[in-house]
Task: structure prediction
Amino acid sequence: MLYKTMSSHLSLSEEKNVLLTFLCRAAKNLYNEALYAVRQAFIYDGTYLSYGENEKALQNSLNYRILNSNMAQGVVREVDEAMSAFFGLIRAKQAGRYHGPIHLPGYMRKDGYRAIEISFVRTIWRNGKLCLDLPRSNLVRHVSRYQEEIYKSAKRQGYAETMELENGQHLTFEVPKPIQDKVIKEVRIVPKFQARMFEIQYVYEWEAESRDREIIPGTSLAIDLGVNNLATCVDSDGSSFIIDGKVLKSRNQLYHKKMARLSSQNAKTPETLTRRQIALIMKRNDQVKYYMNKSARMIVDYVLKHKIAEIIIGNNEDFQSGGISKQSLPRRIKGQINQQFCALPLGQLRNRLEQLSNDYRIVFTLQEESYTSQASFYDEDEIPVFEKGTETKTGFQGRRVHRGLYITKTGMSVNADVNAAFNIMKKSKPNTSFEKIWSRGASTPLRLRVV
Result:
């Protein structure tokens, strides 16, 4: 059985916001308590304190008793998983599979907050809507007992709705419509921006598509990622299309412009985000997430429609981390390019494509893409692999005139990103014949907009 996650922002009353803030702080305190016990046992006794022993010892802790037992056990379980990962790295280093540094899991900040996980979820129908009724914390169970008695008395007399009392301070959230028919296995409430906002994540069961998808063997779709052209896609038959990225680029530029203005107004306390800054960040992140998910869905729908067997996407591990460092460019121009290119999370699109490929049984390949924008696909240039610290001699026959135009040796004009996408496919499949595309050329790419 496979699992998926859906997340949404929570709009809470002031009372619920205070309650969740307090519970997330108690979860952080309990995490540090559990981690302290495990670290002390390992450092001074050379033993490993198991989850069962640690959980039993913490049952008398104030933070454990504040939380519901389900929530508290989830926090202790996270400590156990962190220590298991620590010991896994030690074993990997001893076996020679890992060469980096190893550190014990660290404590959370004193003023931090930790997510709450609830594994046993109960759904109820309330006012015609399917809702999650999460277990109450021990704190609320005791504090709200008197309020429950008032509510029950008011209900017997028919005044409950008029008094607008909430039964026992239950944490109740409406289930999103797309997953109302799914089996919800776990719910996570994640504090954002120092618990000034909260996000709820639903983990639900998902059945994979049938494995008997009809495909044409040997077919593939190569993708070159960019900015104005977010994803340039070409297939084995020479057909091509482009996912437009100008709208996303424009929204990102507007985000930076507004954030710069709000930051200047908040110059006295730049380390603390204002409510308007938080709202702007959340809006921008939601827009980017929607754009990337919709783009990935459009690409996968094309693959399924044309029975393509494989998706090949160009990959460069450092293509966004370092930015543009070319010395011949003015500093102002480099700053503009870096703002446009480095701020777009192209990794989200790549990860979403990989996830959808696994869902629909599509082969997904990451292909190293050095020199694919410079080499000429139609002149059959050999494409080397870039290596740091070594000078590679390149004798490419074509040339890239500007961002969107590539001129081959024979003077033929082609879309520069289409040429790069074909080179990515050629690099991934060096033994494949491309005579069909070389002889008739590629079609003019169709530009698709995300709506």
